[in-house]
Amino acid sequence: MTESDCLFCKIVAGEIPADIVFENDDVIAFRDVNPQAPTHVLIVPRRHIPTINDLEESDARTVGNLYLAAKEVAADEGFAASGYRVVMNCNAAAGQTVFHIHLHLLGGRILGWPPG
Ligand code: AMP
User: Fold this and answer.
1) What is the sign, positive or negative, of the torsion defined by CA atoms of 34, 40, 46, 52?
2) The Cα angle at residue 15 between residues 11 and 21, in degrees rounded to 5
3) Which of 21, 54, 102, 107 meets the CB 3.0–4.6 Å disulfide criterion with 42?
4) Which of 40, 48, 100, 102 is the catalytic position?
5) Any catalytic annotation for residue 102?
6) Distance from C-alpha of 114 to C-alpha of 3, rounded to nearest angstrom
7) Are 99 and 44 within 8 A, CB to CB?
């Protein structure tokens, strides 16, 4: 998948609608269309990075910003203290289907471990 036909690049560009809950210069967060928990938010960099395997040292700040956004959204959603999960899938065996890195932020219910 190239940048030009990347679903999340289109959401970042405003070409596809999304329920955006947080954004700054580097990352945006929007609700997953197929939520797996009462709150299921995806946090993505504005810049196209296909998978964790493509990360470079220069992306370290952006990766940190994904987690800082997760912290903000968890606080806004009201489960920062009770607990939540952030997870990023990498490639087919982990179930990655959109090849533009994204943190899943899941909260609002008890989350089992280990995940499937
Ligand atoms: P992953 O399987 O880790 O790549 O996660 C991709 C996620 O994107 C899935 O949880 C999908 O439900 C979600 N998704 C797919 N299309 C959209 C969309 N247009 N808006 C919001 N979430 C989406």
Assistant:
1) negative
2) 40
3) 102
4) 102
5) yes
6) 33
7) no
